[in-house]
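Handout, page 2. Input:
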Amino acid sequence: MNVNVRTDTSAAPTSGTRRKKIAFAALGTLVVAGAAVALFLPDRKPALSIPDRVCAEAVPSTHVKALLPEKGEPFEEERAVNFTPDVSRGLGMCDLSGGGRVFEIRYSRLQDPEYNREWVRRDASKPGNIPLSLGPAGGYVESHSRVELFVDCPYAKGRTDLLEVSVGIGGVPETVDTTRQAALAGLAADVARVIARQVEHCEGAADLPDGAPAIG
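Output:
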């Protein structure tokens, strides 16, 4: 009697294959279990502690707080240059970070006659920009993460300059967010009032109203 013995073992799992299947199954169980535990664990990110004033204690932090998450990487003032009252240098900067976001705050006195009110209006009318105004000052919201504000700042020798205040934020979604735009514009206004009144002593700085700029 002939007995056919099957010699094809390709379909039969080897001990090594079985071990791999068991290992992958165990790994899958651990991943699922870990995800389930993470749902019930408290958020271990530390709460951000932000001072009431930033940029060498010259600028109120109300709008900075509005633009940062409640928790995340610690808040840090990385540098603040020429924000001290009565220290006029024609330009200054302040860099802040926290919660995975960074602020770049700059100001400068534009002394070239080319940079005037008409130039500001042309830039504000470019596609993608949104005009804004703060009393006699004007500017625009640029893209999703930057605001430019310009204040008349006549020079003592009769030259008419513009004080430019630029506020940008990084680490945010690249989408239009009207709440973010309003907070950035409010921060730019806070900076403009401090620099125009206390640092550069721009003529007419007292005419800058309190509050946030009007957008649109």
